[in-house]
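re: ur question from earlier - yeah i can do the single chain one, its not a big deal. heres the input i used so u can compare w yours
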Amino acid sequence: MRELLERKPSATLALLIRDTATQSAQQRADAFIPLAERSRVKVFAGDVSQPNCGLDSAAYDRLLAETTRVIHSAATVRFDHTLDEARRTNVEGTRHILDFAGGAHQLRSFAYVGTAYVAGERSGLVREDELVVGQSYRNTYEQTKAEAEALVQSRLASIPGMILRPSIIVGDSKTGVTSSFKMMYWPLKIYARRLWRTVPGYSDAVLDIVPVDFVARSVVQLLFDEAALGCTVHLCAGPLASATIQQVAHRAMEYFNGPEPRFIDPKIFFALVRPLLFLSLWGRKRRVLRDGSAYRDYFTMRMQFDTSNAERLLRPAGVSPPPVLDYLDHLFHYCVASDWGRKSISTQ
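and the output i got, formated as tokens:
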């Protein structure tokens, strides 16, 4: 949103945001909309999983008449939802947004923000023009995002759109700022706090992460690029800028002055070591064993994401992902300074 406001000073943005039990959509939006820009940002309380995105007919018709570009990034990113729960937001929500886009007569571009992990349990190089190649999926998130992407592909003949696939999104590459401390942040936290040093994974497993500032710049750049219409683009570090788990672990050891991380074959760990530890450990370390199982598959990946379309479309505009190892210290510093999100800090 901030990228759009800065690059398009005459644009007005419409944000579709859910109410929560404690805050209205407007209150939630006010927390991140710059005060000077609030006249340019219109907030609509809605929910993509509902018919007409949960909007009343007047608001829906108004947006149909006025909208020229759509960015669809609403999704549930939880791994533990049932298939029906995940489909309600990720697939049916996408269907409702596509229906809206199809009825917006002034629409010039539609950007669907998916995930590179629609690749599921593949290995080797994953190309941007590939979706379903017989792979299985690690969780309902990956499966339903693949189903949603297939739905988008089926509509691209009638809607001027594109599919954008980021990998794991982390904090800003310059400031380290993040609003979420999930995914790679959780194992980093337990390591930094000396709760765990054993990695049930392969030292050469690939960690493809991208900073949020790169993703935001890329989405906005491609949204206004006619050459991107009809394309699928990996917003990933790719073979040139990604890192291995061992490289990231070594950098974390240096930064946090921690013990040498130990790698163990995940099949042995989960079949034999973890059950025995679960019987003998209590308290925080037992919780680490329990919670860490959600991340097991992401320590074993040996796939790389082809970024040919990304390089062709983004590099001429000066947009490219920084190498992972170049900004890890910025991420670590923000984690420590904010106490892993427990306190606010100024980045100015």
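The two ends are 19 Å apart (CA to CA). not sure if urs matches, ping me
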